[in-house]
Design a protein that fits this description.
The chain crosses the membrane at residues 12-36. InterPro entries: Bact_exopeptidase_dim_dom, Pept_M20_carboxypep, Pept_M20A, Peptidase_M20, Peptidase_M20_dimer. Zn(2+) 1 binds at residues 176, 211, 484. Keywords: Hydrolase, Membrane, Metal-binding, Protease, Transmembrane, Transmembrane helix, Zinc. The protein is globular and about 85 Å long. Among the domains are: 54-238 and 472-521, Zn peptidases (Aminopeptidase, 3-Layer(aba) Sandwich); 263-303 and 356-414, 2-Layer Sandwich (Alpha-Beta Plaits), CATH 3.30.70.360. The longest helix is centred in the first third of the chain and has 29 residues, at 5-33. The protein has 522 residues and is α/β, with parallel strands linked by helices. Helix 1 (5-33) packs across helix 11 (348-354), helix 2 (64-78) runs antiparallel to helix 5 (178-193) and helix 5 packs across helix 15 (492-508). The chain is 35% helix and 20% strand. It starts with a helix and ends in a 14-residue tail after the last helix. The structure holds 2-acetamido-2-deoxy-beta-D-glucopyranose (2 copies). One 2-acetamido-2-deoxy-beta-D-glucopyranose binds next to loops. One 2-acetamido-2-deoxy-beta-D-glucopyranose (NAG) binds at residues 222, 459, 461-462.
Length: 522
């Protein structure tokens, strides 16, 4: 995943712990005197009734030899250093080698009559799997094959060795994101060997430059499909996980499906003033004016957007898993919302989930110590909350700066992604939710979230409104640090489960409608 949205989630834990403490003291008395609603959430037994109408369901049972091949194929993939150093410098030798590896370990994917394989922009892969029922709208499974650089320093095993140790496979890409690229093809390969023919068509898309923009991979594939008139029911990419051990007082893991991601804007601020000698300085210089402007921006937070994203729904659903009084507080955000959001914003990570963030990242002015500079410039990086747009943020910025000597130039910007649907009618979301509960019975609840970084899936917004980010692997605070960091690894069990998840998900998609959940009052 690009831009370290992961470290982000690690902070969730600290934030919610602070929340627990803060809320306890403040509202306990209030809770006692109010008659409040308790949590309502669907029960785990609702999963019955799945199935592919009129078809035999293939059980997810694999031989020892198959499981060995599954893990060896991943190790070999890790050993190919498909490093993206910059958008113009990716190891193309390794990308080519990676394509050869796919052919070798997934032969059925390349020899089945109803599967078409295309190479896009030399290194990205697009598989079209033609289903038997053209009435079912197709979907897409998305992943990327490039990785960020990993110098050997600090690693317990060399980052491109793919070594196995204590039940883990180590190496760059084991989580971000060769695990997904390999598991998707692996699951389909195993299904094909069992003579599976899907009813619903789908695409598998593997981009080769996600870490450095996606402009030659995902963007070209999206444009290609758009030119063919393809519409997708939903797309599943990386970007969120099964969270384990993140919340104090919350023993069971819970799954977060990210239904949106933040937008971004790089803005240049500039102040020009008459140059001169420092011996007779004017009352204000461009440096002073610009410094005051950016300082106001840093001191004045953007509006708190709590309630305009998914955080409210997320907290309400998590509520049932907490004890008193947190359960009461979180199920009654109509009254406790303001205080909860006030406490949440103290954690930088959660703050990033509930508002547009402002990061002053560059400041340039002056060339000589005795010369008043004629111009000063500052660069600011904004991450835009899904409840806002680029023009709205610009207007707020101008109102905060409130100085017409400051000029603005948008260097580049993209709007946040709209929230993909996550109600009972949302096929992609419900399909994920049900499959999570089938394969990971230990998961207590599945909630919608927002990704504060960016992934390839945002480039597909023209061909689908159901963009979901979910990587079916458990994450604990420790493993988060390994993303783009040291000792990235995946347990063999977790990888097998990921393959099994996809094996089930692909079969589950062969239905017109996810069965209605039964909601019980608890
Ligand atoms: C690029 O990949 C090739 C083939 O896998 C490898 O031999 C080479 O060392 C890599 N180059 C860099 C700079 O990582
Ligand atoms: C979607 O389509 C519009 C209009 O053709 C285009 O300008 C835009 O770049 C496309 N978006 C993406 C993410 O490709």
């Amino acid at each position: 995943m690009a831009h370290r949205n992961v470290a982000a989630k690690a902070g969730l834990s600290a934030g919610l712990r602070a929340l627990a403490v803060g809320v306890m003291g403040t509202v306990l008395a209030l809770v006692a005197v109010l008659l409040l609603r308790t949590a309502t959430f669907p029960r785990l037994d609702e999963l019955h009734g799945w199935g592919r109408p009129g078809a035999f369901r293939i059980p997810a049972q694999f031989s020892e030899a198959e499981l060995k091949a599954v893990k060896e194929a991943l190790k070999e993939a890790i050993r190919i250093p498909t490093v993206a150093f910059s958008s113009e410098n990716i190891n193309t030798t390794a990308l080519t080698e990676f394509g050869e590896h796919l052919r070798k370990v997934f032969p059925s994917m390349f020899s089945t009559s109803f599967i078409q394989h295309e190479i896009v922009e030399k290194y990205s892969h697009l598989f079209t799997i033609h289903g038997s029922n053209p009435k079912l709208e197709p979907y897409m499974l998305l992943a990327h094959i490039d990785v960020v650089p990993a110098p050997d320093d600090g690693w317990e095993v060399p980052p491109f060795s793919g070594l196995e140790r204590d039940g883990f496979i180590y190496g760059r890409g084991t989580l971000d994101n060769k695990n997904s690229a390999m598991a998707i093809l692996q699951a389909m390969e195993l299904l094909l060997r069992r003579n599976y023919v899907p009813q619903r068509s789908f695409y598998i898309s593997l981009g080769h430059d996600e870490e450095v923009s996606g402009k030659y991979g995902a963007q070209k594939i999206a444009a290609l499909l758009e030119s063919r008139g393809v519409r997708l029911s939903f797309i599943i990419d990386e970007g969120s996980y099964i969270m384990d051990g993140f919340l104090a007082g919350f023993k069971k893991p819970f799954a977060v499906i990210a239904v949106s991601e933040k937008g971004g804007m790089n803005l240049k601020l500039q102040v020009d003033s008459a140059p001169g000698h420092s011996s007779a300085p004017p009352k204000e210089t461009s440096i002073g004016i610009l410094a005051a402007a950016v300082s106001r921006l840093e001191q004045t937070p953007m509006p708190n957007m709590f309630g305009y994203g998914t955080e409210k729904n997320m907290l309400e659903q998590l509520a049932g898993q907490f004890g008193f009084p947190m359960n009461i507080v979180l199920t009654n955000l109509w009254i406790f919302g303001p205080i909860v959001s006030r406490i949440l914003e103290k954690s930088p990570v959660i703050n990033a989930m509930i508002r547009t963030t402002v990061a002053l990242t560059m400041f340039n002015a002056g060339i000589k110590v005795n010369v008043i500079p004629s111009t000063s410039q500052a660069m600011i990086n904004f991450r835009i909350h899904p409840g806002q747009t680029i023009p709205e943020v610009l207007e707020i910025v101008q109102n905060i700066v409130a100085d017409d000597r400051v000029q603005y130039q948008v260097l580049n910007a993209f709007n946040p992604l709209p929230l993909s649907p996550y109600d009972h009618e949302a096929f992609g979301y419900q399909l994920l939710r049900r499959t999570i509960r089938d394969v990971f019975p230990e998961v207590s609840v599945v909630v919608p979230g927002i990704c504060i970084g960016n992934t390839d899936v945002r480039l597909y917004s023209n061909i689908s409104t159901g963009l979901y980010r979910f990587n079916p692997v458990p994450m604990n605070p420790e493993s988060f640090k390994s993303f783009h960091g040291l000792n990235e690894r995946i347990s063999i069990k977790a990888y097998e489960n990921q393959v099994m998840f996809l094996f089930e998900l692909i079969q589950n998609a062969d239905t017109e409608k996810v069965p209605e959940p039964h909601v019980h009052e608890l």
